[in-house]
Amino acid sequence: MLKRWLPFLIIASLAACTPAQDQLVFPEDVKVPYGEMNTAISLENLPVMENSMKNDEPFIIKIKNTTSSDVIFSKGYGIEIFSYKNSEWENIQNNFYYPEGNQQLPPSDVWPSGIIVSVVPKVLELKEPIDIFVFISGNINSPDGELVGAYYTYTLLPNEEFK
Fold first, then answer.
1. Closest residue by Cα to residue 110 from 142, 71, 75, 149
2. DSSP class of 48
3. DSSP letter string over 148-160?
4. Which of 1, 5, 123, 149 is deepest in the core (most CB within 10 A)?
5. What is the reported pLDDT for 24?
6. Do 142 and 69 contact (CB within 8 A), yes or no?
């Protein structure tokens, strides 16, 4: 009888260990509420770029605009990088240089259907993998200038020199 219930028990125990996504509270620096993330804009990993996911190496992502209006980003596309460990947010250095001035992203039905950007997260003396969150924010190009945002999570791996 235990054999029949074992898969259910394993799934139930894993679900109990995973915090509910809607209970995640973002750092104070991130102004877009959790429930509004990844709705007007989204971030996508570009597997064709063969991202290494390693510390202090470029991670290339695509920003897509799913609205019918342009989205305006301030310098650096409003990118912020954080890790979340021990129930606390820690700001991660981004070693990528972005051009001065605002950047404009047209809707996805207008060519090009997104902007390719890089982030280069750097954690000093990273010795074990950590989960990081890449946040991005901008404003809809409209009279009210609604704030929109997206985030992407991945595991940042240490470079060989720190293993």
1. 71
2. G
3. EEEEEEEEEBPPG
4. 149
5. 64
6. yes
Q: Give the pLDDT band (50/70/90) at residue 56.
A: very high
Task: Tell me how far apart the alpha carbons of residues 67 and 37 are, in angstroms, rounded to a whole number.
Answer: 13
Task: Give the helix/strand (H/E) hosting 135.
Answer: strand 130-140
Q: pTM for this one?
A: 0.79
Residue in 114, 125, 121 with CA at minimum distance from that of residue 135? 121
Measure the CA angle with vertex 100, ends 132 and 40; round to 5°: 50
Residue 90: exposure state from Cβ atoms within 10 A (0-12, 13-18, ≥19): middle
The third-level CATH classification (topology) of the domain covering 21-162 is Immunoglobulin-like (2.60.40)
CA nearest neighbour of 139 among 61, 45, 32, 43: 32
> How far apart (Å, rounded) are the C-alpha atoms in residues 52 and 157?
8
Q: 74: Cβ–Cβ under 8 A, 6 or more apart, which residues? A: 102, 138
